[in-house]
Each structure stands twice: as C-alpha cells, then as structure tokens.
C-alpha cells in the first residue's frame, strides 16, 4: 500500500470482512458501496428499499464524519438498486440526506446485489482537500 493512500473505517459502521469502508488518495475519498446494516451488523429494512436507503445514508454520514467531511463534500453518487419500483423511495432518502446539494448521480438497476436482502447499495466520491 502506498503511504499516500489511507484506508480506514469508522468504529460506528459495521466492519467489512475484506476491505476498509473508505480510501483517501490525494484530495479525494472513495467510499465503498454501503448497504443497510446497522453498527451491530443487523439488516435494516428487509423488503423496504426506503428504509434500507435511510440506513445506507446513515452509514455514509458516519463515514463522512470519520474523515472530516460532510454531505456537501460529495462530488459523485452511484446508486445500485434491484427493483425499478423502489426508485422513488430511494431517491427520497438521497434528497433528505443531501438537501439542496445535488452532485452528479448515477442510478443503476441490476439483477442482484451481494446478499438477497440488499435492495440498494450506494457509493460516493468525496472531495477532501488536504487543508480541510
């Protein structure tokens, strides 16, 4: 690992088995896809994409705070979801989390995610200038 890349995870987000939740390289941070697990690792919102998205954004908020960032520092959002019918509920949670901040966003409908419980997964890219 390069000393210019920092890999880290906050203590209040359930740890991933094989990777850290965020990689900081230069002035940017790349947040791994977040799913609806609470800090104890329990699934949140089984069958409810809106409730899952709310938990996903709680996790992202915790990760951002861990690296000294806020939702307004996010420069790109990638949302992966499994059912077109869930799009409005997922979008509503994104808008609640970001408020008036509207960075570029990609919504990608796919056949399935890492576990059958997962209806939505979100990645973000964050601008984190060294002086911040």
TrEMBL record:
<comment type="similarity">
    <text>Belongs to the RutC family.</text>
</comment>
<dbReference type="GO" id="GO:0019239">
    <property type="term" value="F:deaminase activity"/>
</dbReference>
<dbReference type="Pfam" id="PF01042">
    <property type="entry name" value="Ribonuc_L-PSP"/>
</dbReference>
<protein>
    <submittedName>
        <fullName>Enamine deaminase RidA, house cleaning of reactive enamine intermediates, YjgF/YER057c/UK114 family</fullName>
    </submittedName>
</protein>
<dbReference type="InterPro" id="IPR006175">
    <property type="entry name" value="YjgF/YER057c/UK114"/>
</dbReference>
<dbReference type="InterPro" id="IPR035959">
    <property type="entry name" value="RutC-like_sf"/>
</dbReference>
<dbReference type="GO" id="GO:0005829">
    <property type="term" value="C:cytosol"/>
</dbReference>
């Amino acid at each position: 690992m390069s000393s210019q890349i920092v890999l880290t995870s906050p203590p209040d987000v359930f740890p991933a088995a094989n990777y850290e939740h965020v990689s900081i390289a230069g002035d940017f941070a790349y947040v791994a896809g977040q799913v609806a697990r609470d800090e104890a690792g329990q699934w949140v919102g089984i069958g409810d994409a809106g409730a899952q998205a709310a938990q996903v954004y709680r996790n992202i908020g915790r990760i951002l705070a861990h690296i000294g960032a806020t939702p307004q520092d996010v420069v790109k959002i990638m949302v992966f979801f499994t059912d077109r019918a869930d799009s409005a509920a997922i979008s509503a949670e994104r808008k609640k989390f970001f408020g008036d901040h509207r960075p570029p966003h990609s919504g990608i409908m796919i056949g399935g995610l890492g576990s059958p419980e997962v209806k939505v997964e979100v990645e973000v890219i964050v601008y984190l200038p060294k002086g911040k």
